[in-house]
Amino acid sequence: MDRLLVLVRHGQSDWNLKNLFTGWRDPDLTPKGVEEARAAGKRLKALDLSFGLAFTSELTRAQHTLKLILDEVGQPDLQTVRDVALNERDYGELSGLNKDDARAKWGEEQVHIWRRSYDVPPPGGESLKDTGARVWPYYLFNILPPVMRGEKVLVAAHGNSLRALIMALEGLSPEEILKQELETGVPILYRLNADTTVAEKKVLKG
């Protein structure tokens, strides 16, 4: 049985380009982001993969990325589940701010702590631990079961919601997951063992 899970961080968004904290705000993809998503789809098609189910967040940039990938793999009508549990980390009062402006307001060290600590949230927002608290149950009860049944599952989401998911998948510590950088539009392919542990991981870079 092929227990396959593919994770893709959305392509570059307008706010990625402008160096803004995005969080739950809802900008769309840039032209570069569109190309990144299409390229991801082409890489998956080259492996002759077809999927049984897809998941994405409630945010446009992830949904648009998923649509472009599914168009490329020839499955535009694939059953897709959208859920707020897969949304990006909520940056609270930082949302919409330029990262340099945030450093000027709160200081470089404080902004670095908010961005790179595991359990310190920005004002009114979520830490990575908080993000995990909604991602982990969703993964266990919604995403993992179809994978374990042998359905090939595709998830298009966000840097921090996917970090939390990868933390659970790979059994990483808080220190280890904070070092994980996820590139936009690059699929990560996991094959799972019968006990849900990772048998194989491939990063499908161009």
Automatic annotation (TrEMBL):
<dbReference type="InterPro" id="IPR005952">
    <property type="entry name" value="Phosphogly_mut1"/>
</dbReference>
<dbReference type="InterPro" id="IPR013078">
    <property type="entry name" value="His_Pase_superF_clade-1"/>
</dbReference>
<dbReference type="GO" id="GO:0006096">
    <property type="term" value="P:glycolytic process"/>
</dbReference>
<comment type="subunit">
    <text>Homodimer.</text>
</comment>
<comment type="pathway">
    <text>Carbohydrate degradation; glycolysis; pyruvate from D-glyceraldehyde 3-phosphate: step 3/5.</text>
</comment>
<feature type="binding site">
    <location>
        <begin position="22"/>
        <end position="23"/>
    </location>
    <ligand>
        <name>substrate</name>
    </ligand>
</feature>
<feature type="binding site">
    <location>
        <position position="61"/>
    </location>
    <ligand>
        <name>substrate</name>
    </ligand>
</feature>
<feature type="active site" description="Tele-phosphohistidine intermediate">
    <location>
        <position position="10"/>
    </location>
</feature>
<feature type="binding site">
    <location>
        <begin position="159"/>
        <end position="160"/>
    </location>
    <ligand>
        <name>substrate</name>
    </ligand>
</feature>
<feature type="binding site">
    <location>
        <begin position="115"/>
        <end position="116"/>
    </location>
    <ligand>
        <name>substrate</name>
    </ligand>
</feature>
<keyword id="KW-0312">Gluconeogenesis</keyword>
<keyword id="KW-0413">Isomerase</keyword>
<feature type="active site" description="Proton donor/acceptor">
    <location>
        <position position="88"/>
    </location>
</feature>
<dbReference type="InterPro" id="IPR029033">
    <property type="entry name" value="His_PPase_superfam"/>
</dbReference>
<dbReference type="GO" id="GO:0004619">
    <property type="term" value="F:phosphoglycerate mutase activity"/>
</dbReference>
<dbReference type="GO" id="GO:0006094">
    <property type="term" value="P:gluconeogenesis"/>
</dbReference>
<feature type="binding site">
    <location>
        <position position="99"/>
    </location>
    <ligand>
        <name>substrate</name>
    </ligand>
</feature>
<feature type="binding site">
    <location>
        <begin position="9"/>
        <end position="16"/>
    </location>
    <ligand>
        <name>substrate</name>
    </ligand>
</feature>
<protein>
    <recommendedName>
        <fullName>2,3-bisphosphoglycerate-dependent phosphoglycerate mutase</fullName>
        <ecNumber>5.4.2.11</ecNumber>
    </recommendedName>
</protein>
<comment type="similarity">
    <text>Belongs to the phosphoglycerate mutase family. BPG-dependent PGAM subfamily.</text>
</comment>
<keyword id="KW-0324">Glycolysis</keyword>
<feature type="site" description="Transition state stabilizer">
    <location>
        <position position="158"/>
    </location>
</feature>
<feature type="binding site">
    <location>
        <begin position="88"/>
        <end position="91"/>
    </location>
    <ligand>
        <name>substrate</name>
    </ligand>
</feature>
<dbReference type="Pfam" id="PF00300">
    <property type="entry name" value="His_Phos_1"/>
</dbReference>
<comment type="function">
    <text>Catalyzes the interconversion of 2-phosphoglycerate and 3-phosphoglycerate.</text>
</comment>
<dbReference type="InterPro" id="IPR001345">
    <property type="entry name" value="PG/BPGM_mutase_AS"/>
</dbReference>
